[in-house]
Amino acid sequence: MLLSRPVFFALFGLLWLNEGAWAQTSAAAGTPWGNWFVGTVVLPGGTRKWGGFVEVQARTNSLFQEYFYNELKGGVSYDLDPNFTVLVGGGRYATYQPSALGDGPLSIEKRLWEQLVLSQFLTRLKLEHRYRVEQRWFSQRDGADVFRQRIRYRLNAFVPLNQKSIAAHTVFLSVYDEIFLNPVGPTFERNRIYAGVGYQLNAHWIGQAGWVKQANFSTAAFQQGIFTPPATSAKNSLVLALTYRLSPRRPKTDPQSLPSQQD
User: Fold this and answer.
1) pLDDT tens digit string along 46-85?
2) pTM score
3) Is 89 part of any domain?
4) CATH code where residue 138 lies
5) Residue 241's domain spans which residues?
6) Based on the number of CB atoms within 10 Å of its own CB, is 246 exposed (0-12), middle (13-18) or buried (19 or more)?
7) Read out DSSP for 81-124?
8) Structurally, how many domains does the chain consist of?
């Protein structure tokens, strides 16, 4: 099914916003693709307003091999109205050395965050603006403890292809770009862009597959007479996500909810 011109240009514009970032963040030669495996259970707020989610995630450094990272997180949400949702979440994030998993994590992060989500339903085009503030506690294997904060903003666009809204038996496109800001530095810490396709089987099950490119940035430094220019590292990954949505108590009156990824 062909996309209308407004939808096409909206998606094109979202991708174009970070054209400059893409041009400067291509992955180093020989860097393999990785995997993100994501499993989520979501309770939409709907008519009762209170909702939440739990999620487990695993990542590999190469396609389907070299496991090195996992996340376990959850949160409680409240719908201020059908278009505004607030959420408080927390999680545990562990990073390993792929060749020495038995040695335990290199780093464990415990994270708390607060976020506001604004949803816009523009006929076939659906937009989601997500604003998040994070508090992060790191425990390193060498005994060092670090506290950091971060601010994130994500613009996510959804386009159902075979229906006007995302419901049972709907194929949809999802594109987002997210920026990560560090109040200490580097200010522009990370950029993450995603494009994928999803299918909502019924009121409960949603599957998505897509591509994510995550670029990390460092600031320039001048120490002991040595100048270190700003550096960028980027990696492409294949995302495979499966979501189970719990049934609302009154599904016929619940507003439309978007199949957003929680990360």
Assistant:
1) 788 999 999 999 999 999 999 999 999 999 999 999 899 9
2) 0.85
3) yes
4) 2.40.160
5) 5-245
6) middle
7) ETTEEEEEEEEEEEE--GGGGGG--SEEEEEEEEEEEEEEEETT
8) 1
